[in-house]
Design goal:
8-stranded mixed beta sheet, two-stranded antiparallel ribbon, binds coenzyme A
Length: about 220
Amino acid sequence: MTTLAENSHRFPLQVTLHNTAIVFRPLTSACRGAMLDFARDLPEQDLLFLDRDIAQPAVVDQWVRDVADGRLATIAAWRDNGIVGYATTARGNVRWSRHVADLRVVVAEGYRGLGLGRWLLELVFEMALEAGATKLVARMTPDQTGALSLFRHLGFEQEAVLRDHALDANGLTHDLIVLSFHTRQHPDNRCGSCGVAVLAPLLLEGDRLCSHCYESRYEELGSGD
Ligand SMILES: CC(C)(COP(=O)(O)OP(=O)(O)OC[C@H]1O[C@@H](n2cnc3c(N)ncnc32)[C@H](O)[C@@H]1OP(=O)(O)O)[C@@H](O)C(=O)NCCC(=O)NCCS
């Protein structure tokens, strides 16, 4: 079993989504300024329920250290010199939940609808599985409608509603919906080339691929969408 810090993905990974060139890279200290700019541009309601206040430099520094230590994995999506989204996965931190990984994703408002959220989730999903996870969990409030649609679209199912479980920055409580994805219930979600388990295959030239095979094929073709 590998840790989240040791995964076989080759980064940077470049793709073109609706004619927009995007580069995916793991979070490092070099991302600090760009991540703070990204956070400051996010709508307030999207910042309310992040597990960390990523607009704070010290919080981003701790986040970078946690990634380096393998406590969680974060992939940032870059457009030119700016971050336009990220996804994280963290493994259960007690022994009996080590097969469970949390997934989170946020995309900049101006880059939604391009397939970026889906790409980011695919990358962290594959990293979580490589590290031994078999159950993936995402949590969100009922008003995070875009996120609910995205996760349901990818096969996540509602598992629980935790009443008044989330407290926002204004002191108001919100219900929290827990969605889950059990890999054993999706045995057919496999890369059409190498057969590795995928969340939702990435389509390239009619093939249904994992991110590794997508990257190799994309390089061969010299472009993609
Ligand atoms: C949720 C979020 C990450 C989606 O990112 P995105 O890059 O726009 O998503 P994608 O373009 O990859 O969408 C993939 C699929 O998800 C669904 N989807 C995404 N956003 C949707 C929305 N607002 N309404 C309906 N469906 C949506 C669609 O089915 C879409 O499939 P399609 O392209 O075939 O239509 C983005 O809206 C966001 O950052 N929201 C705020 C943060 C948040 O709530 N995070 C969740 C916490 S875990």
